[in-house]
Design goal:
Layout (H helix, E strand, L loop, with lengths): L5 E9 L3 E10 L3 E6 L6 H8 L7 E6 L2 E2 L5 H6 L2 E4 L11 H5 L6 E2 L2 E2 L1 H14 L16 H13 L5 E5 L7 H14 L5 E5 L3 H7 L2 E6 L2 E7 L5 H8 L18 E9 L7 E6 L14 H9 L6 E6 L4
Parallel strand pairs: 3-10, 3-11, 6-9, 9-10
Antiparallel strand pairs: 1-2, 1-4, 4-5, 7-8, 11-12, 13-14, 13-15
Helix pairs in contact: 4-5
Length: 316
């Protein structure tokens, strides 16, 4: 008999086209299990099935060795599955406290117990780094990062065996991310597991015990993070291993507008050189997690540059 907390076999789902194709996945108790893949790989569809938003067309899901076929999100919560989604599900005109406790309102004879609501919400808010936030204010007053932390606190309001986090740190600073990582490490016990979905591959490598790669609805590989690096993940996420032919369509003399020379950031391995000319639309391409956003932030000055220079050439 399998020791897995979550065991998925032959799972398939089709909308206009196949999204999940005979997918296999196991998550062991006591682990934080990363799930990565390009947009459209099937990650959100998979988590929505586990969490009760969708039903699979075929296949089997076992939770603690028992069939897991939730018909609703509430059904999944009762079975010990809690989900924090990337597309935030907060209700703007409710308070911060009410949003945090939305799934588990403390009531008596149909009346909400306000003191207990605020007490429980306050404990969860403090856990995720929102201890100084006014719980009475509408959640619409919060910043994007604060709203994301409320979403996480809401997921933690339900007792869980499996916690699914879809891009939980996408809007957070590095300091906020580290607080959440410490919290998650403390939450994982011998009888619990966390499924962690993120495009921030450095976070996946730093936090997760194992990571699985999805590509076009198929599980490509599962490895221990101690045996791989982020570049391996990027390679596994991409179908193409060939090189793209370089084309230069620009003709005639063009004046420089921006020059980057030998720039190195904490997230890049090799020095970066690039030149942008007047009249150009300059594209930066790469897989999720390859460092595109970090490059632009470093050029702009929002992230640290370890070495190199950025020069803006003004018209005379």
């Amino acid at each position: 008999m399998s020791s897995a907390l979550l065991e998925i076999s032959n799972l398939s789902k089709t909308f206009a086209q196949p999204i999940l194709k005979n997918l296999y996945l196991e998550i062991q108790p006591g682990t934080i299990h990363g799930l990565v893949g390009q947009n459209g790989a099937g990650k959100s569809t998979l988590t929505n099935i586990i969490a009760g938003f969708l039903s699979a067309d075929s296949g089997r899901i076992l939770l603690d060795g028992r069939p897991h076929n939730p018909k609703t999100v509430a059904d999944a919560n009762l079975r010990g599955v809690s989900l924090s989604v990337q597309e935030m599900s907060l209700i703007d005109n409710l308070s911060v406290a009410e949003n945090i406790m939305l799934r588990t309102f403390p009531t008596e004879f149909g009346i909400i117990k306000e003191r207990q609501l605020l007490g429980s919400a306050g404990q969860l808010a403090k856990k995720v780094g929102l201890g100084s936030v006014d719980l009475h204010q509408p959640v619409s007053n919060l910043t994007l990062a604060q709203r994301q932390l409320v979403e996480l606190a809401k997921a933690l309001s339900c007792p869980f065996r499996l916690l699914i986090l879809d891009e939980p740190t996408a809007a957070l600073t590095e300091a906020q991310t580290e607080i959440i990582h410490e919290l998650l490490r403390g939450l994982v016990q011998s009888t619990r597991a966390i499924m962690y979905i993120s495009h921030r591959l450095d976070d996946v490598m730093e936090l997760c015990d194992k990571v699985s790669v999805l590509r076009d609805g198929i599980l490509i590989n599962t490895r221990k993070t101690c045996d791989i690096d982020a570049s391996w993940l990027i390679k596994e996420m991409s179908e193409s291993t060939g090189e793209i032919e370089e084309k230069h369509c620009f003709k005639g003399k063009k004046s420089k507008r921006l020059s980057v020379l030998d720039m190195v950031t904490p997230r890049t391995k090799n020095p970066i050189d690039l030149t942008i000319h007047g009249g150009e639309i300059f594209g930066v391409a790469g897989l999720a997690g390859s460092g595109r956003s970090e490059l632009l932030k470093a050029i702009y000055g929002l992230e640290e540059r370890l070495s190199g220079s950025v020069k803006v050439h003004l018209e005379k």
